[in-house]
Amino acid sequence: MKITKLIPALICAAALLVSCGGSNNTVATDGSTSMEKVIGALGESFTEKYSGKNFTYNPTGSGSGIKAVLEGNCDIGLSSRALKAEEEAEGLVGTVLAYDGIAVIVNPENKVADLTIEQIADVYTGKITNWKELGGSDAEIVLIGREAASGTRDGFESITNTKDACKYRQELTSTGDVITAVSQNPAAIGYASLASVKDSVKALKVNGVAPTEATVKDGSYKIQRPFVLVTKKDTKLSDTAQKFFDYATSSEAAPIIAAAGAVAVN
Fold it and tell me: What is the pTM (predicted TM-score) of this model?
């Protein structure tokens, strides 16, 4: 069976039938839009491997996925940031599935190819406002980012030391929206999961290092964050959900995760 990607309304409808997953043969996941490619590939391979098992994914963002687990509205939450202390205090457990680079992206027409972390921070905090200051065209920089609950935003701002200081022009609700916005504006800059970057945008080098699977794995690309599976400490997963969890975190799944653009932990 192929992966089924459901809109929130359909997932809510399924929850009316059976709490947390729809049936004993279904695992329901909810959360990070940045993890779409990775979790989609895992879901598809899981349902192919285990006949009769189903998989759903609700792309709501890291914060919403964490909340869904806490409230019992899904089996496994998906977060593209580490859990916060207060979330762990509420009984949530984060298991790192993989590591993902956060690519800093610009329009392909942009001549700039390499920035330091300090320059990126200066751009996003408004200290640098024109591309000509970075060797590019004479154009005002348009800052694109994610909404406040985004794990990608949390990771980007933490690593660049710009938390609560970014001067966004647009704060968008998904990785795909950021990529689209940057692809349509030659003066824009944004950030997105490396696993989701398309040819419609250009990923910049950071401190001279291009974002690739190899540079994320060896740590030389500095803007990276974890992909996390979120569960409740004192709540046992259904047999199907546990089977998916074990499969996703096994060495068997590593090639699938790599093909989706991330670096598996195992």
Answer: 0.78
